[in-house]
Protein 1
Amino acid sequence: MRILIPLPRHIVEAAVRMALAEDLGRAGDITTDAIIPADAIMIANLSVRNPGRVAGLDLAIEAFRQMGGDAVVATVCKTDGSDVEPGDVVMRVEGLARAILTAERVALNFVGRLSGIATATREIVEAVGSRKVDVTCTRKTTPGLRVLEKYAVRAGGGSNHRFGLDDGVLIKDNHIAVAGGVRPAIERARAHVGHMVKIEIEVDTLDQLAEVLKIGADVILLDNMNLSTMVKAVQMIDRRAISEASGGVTAAKAAAIAATGVDVMSVGWLTHSAPSLDFGLDEVS
C-alpha cells in the first residue's frame, strides 16, 4: 500500500482561506455573532454517518484554526485513509463556540467531499483485488480543487493521472484529427517535449493501435473498448508500452477490466460524480 503523503501546508491554508472568505462574505457569521456570547466555550465531535474512508481532516483542522487560532483545539481520532463506520468520531473540537460554529460548514464540506472521493476510490481498488493494476483519476475535477481531490483519490488507495496539461502529453482523438493522423501527432509531440516527459496516445480501434505500435509511445489509452477487444489490445502491446483502460469503469466492471491485463484503469467519475460522505458536528453535552 502506498504511503499517504499529507497535503502541503500552503495548499491547505489557501484552500481554506478561500472557502471561508466565500462563506463569511461581507459581514461574517451574523447568526452566530448575534446569538452566541463571545466567551462561550463548546466541545463538539465530528462524526461520520455512513461507512466509508476518511480524507480531508487537515482542511477541517485548518478551518477551525483560521477562525479560532489557539482558542480552538482539534484532536484527530481517525487519520486520513482510515476506514470508518457510522457513529465513529473522527475529530473532537474544543474552544470558542463562535469560531467552531462559523468554521463548521467549511470543515464539513471539505471532509465530506474528499471522503466521498476516497470512499469511491476504495470501492474500485477493492473490486480489483490482488491484480496488479493502478486505479487512477483524471483531470475531470472541480475547478480550483484538483490538488485536494487528487489527494483524496490517493487516500482511497488509488493513484493520480496528470495534474495538468503541462506535466505529460496525452494525444486524444481531436489532436489526431487536426494533426492529420497518428504519426504526425506523435512525431510532433516527440520533437516538442523533453526527454523527461512521457507521451500517451488514445486509440479507439485495434487498427489505430497497430499504427501506434509501429511508431512508439510510452502509454496507450484504450478508450471505451469492450472486454474482448481490450484483451487483444493488451496482447498486441505486449509490454512495449503501459496500457490504460478508460471509459465506463465502475466497481462492478473493475475486476473484469483488470483481468484483461491492463496496467492502469482511469476513472473520471471519482472526482466529478462521487457522492459526498455524510458527516455531522454535534456538541458534546
Protein 2
Amino acid sequence: MYKILTLNNISILGLERFPRDRYEIASEIQHPDAILVRSFKMHGMEIPSTLKAIGRAGAGVNNIPVEEMSKCGIPVFNAPGANANAVKELVVAGLLLGARNLCPAWDFARNLIGDDATISKKTEDGKKQFAGFELPGRTLGVIGLGAIGVRVANVAVDLGMNVIGYDPLITVQRAWQLSARVKQALSIDDLIGQSDFVTVHVPLNNHTRGLLNANRLRLMKSHGVVLNFAREGIVDDDAICAAIRDGHLWAYICDFPSNTLKNHERIITLPHLGASTAEAEDNCAIMVADQVRDYLENGNITNSVNFPEVVMPRSQGFRLGVANANVPNMVAQISAVLGRVELNILDMVNKSRGDLAYTLVDLETPISQSVLTEISAIAGVLSVRAISTP
C-alpha cells in the first residue's frame, strides 16, 4: 500500500487517479511515499525518510526545496502546460484592461452620485478621460515561449496583433505549435524596444529575477504596457513605478499585489488568479497524479524539474531504480554488483541531466535487500529502490 500525503486541497479528479486498493491518501499521514502539494511552502519542513517523490499540482516549484530533494534522490514533478489555457485567457484580459482603461472606468462609473439624469450627464462628460486604443496593429512581445507563451502568442495573432517572441531555449515541440506569423526577436532588449505590450512567461530563478529592470524599462515606448502573470520578482516593482513616473511606461498589469503596487493609479494588481479556474486545478492534479503514480509503480520519470526524463516499458516484474550523481563509471559499478550475485539484466536505461542521473534496470529475478544496500553504498548513489510488479 502506497501512502500519499496532501499538503493542500487537491482536486478530487486528481486523487481519483490513485486506486484505493493500492493507495492511502490523507492530509495527515505517517511515513508517506509521496507528497502532493500546491502552494504549501515546504522550505524548512522535516522531510520523511520514506519519501520517494513530490508532485506539485502546478508549474512553479519555488515553494519546494528542490536542491535538497535532489541530494536525497527524490524527483520533484510538476504539471507544465496544464494551466496554460487559464493563464492565456487572463493575459488576454490583461491586454484589454491595459488598452481600454477598464478598471479606472469601472471605478469612475460605480462611484457616480445623483439621479439617473445626473449620472447620464456625468457619464458623457467623463468618458473621454478613459479613451483607449484597439489591439489590432499593436505589437506584443512575448518573453518565454513555453506552453503558456506559445498560446499567448498565437491568440494575439488571432486578435490581429503583431507578435514577436524571444526564447533561446524554445523546444522543437513548442516551435511546431507556434504560429508562423510570430517573429523572432534578437534579444530581450530588441523585443522590448519594438513592443507596445510586453508579457513575461518564464520561471523565477537566479537568471530571471529582476529580468525587467530599470534599464530595460527605459526602452519601452511611452504608451507601453507590461504584463506579468508568471511569477513575482521577475519584474522589478520599484523600477515599474519609476518608469511610469518618468514616462517610459503607461501601465503595469500583474497577478502579484504588493504595498508598492496596489494603490498606484496606473497599475492593476490581481490576486494571483492565473491558474484559478476549476479546469486548471483539475488538469494540474490529474497530470501530476499520473506522473507520481507512474514513478511509484514503474520508476518512470516524466516532467521532473530536477531529474532527467526516463521512461522504459516493463519487460519483467523485477525492476531497480537508482538515482545518482552524474559521475563516470556509475552504471558499470551498479552492473558489477548485479553481476556478482548473478542477477541477469533484461533491459536498462540510463540518462543524465546536469549533475544528476537516473538508471532503470529490469531483472530476470527479484533483487534482495542486501544487494540494494550494497548499491546504495556506492559513492554518488542518492537513492535506490526495488519496484515490484504493479
